[in-house]
Sequence to fold (187 residues):
Amino acid sequence: MIVDIGLYLAIGVLLATGVYLLLDRSLTRMLMGLILAGNGANLLLLTLASPPGHPPIEGFFSFGRDSAADPLAQAMILTAIVITMGMSAFILALAYRSFTINTDDEVDDDPEDTKVLERDADRADEDPDFDASDDPVTGLPSAAGDAFGPDGHRLSPEELRQARVDALDTGAVPVHDVNADDERGDR
Fold:
């Protein structure tokens, strides 16, 4: 089998350049990256289908070749070309709409996402935690779950009951004890 290092090098350059361009914020560069990466993947499929010079049609043979190439790879490449063309048309439509609205095709941060992140960062201390993996000392999952106080020490059953009563009195969400669920058979 003949290995064409130049072809594999070209495939590597196409894929690397395509991935690099896909990571950009400009829609035009994303489109170019999608096309380059798609062409690189198609070439890789074509080169791995069979040795060079073998025809993909059964019964037709090139001079000196006694086997046929796998036609499935070429069918997959044809399908990939159609899918890439559809995605390219969609990205072009997005770029056109972005350009008509903002006179720029660069994807900006969504202001609503920024507001949600800021809101969540402000309320991080108030939010209750209901997972069973917050052992404050080891950080490993624990069966006790949220049966730890704010100082990191494990709460005794009496302290846990008092914390629940205090939470109900203040209107906050009660502390969740995984062991109590296990005793009731909820888990």
In short: The longest helix spans residues 71-102. The helical segments are 5-22, 27-49, 71-102, 111-122, 157-170, 178-184.
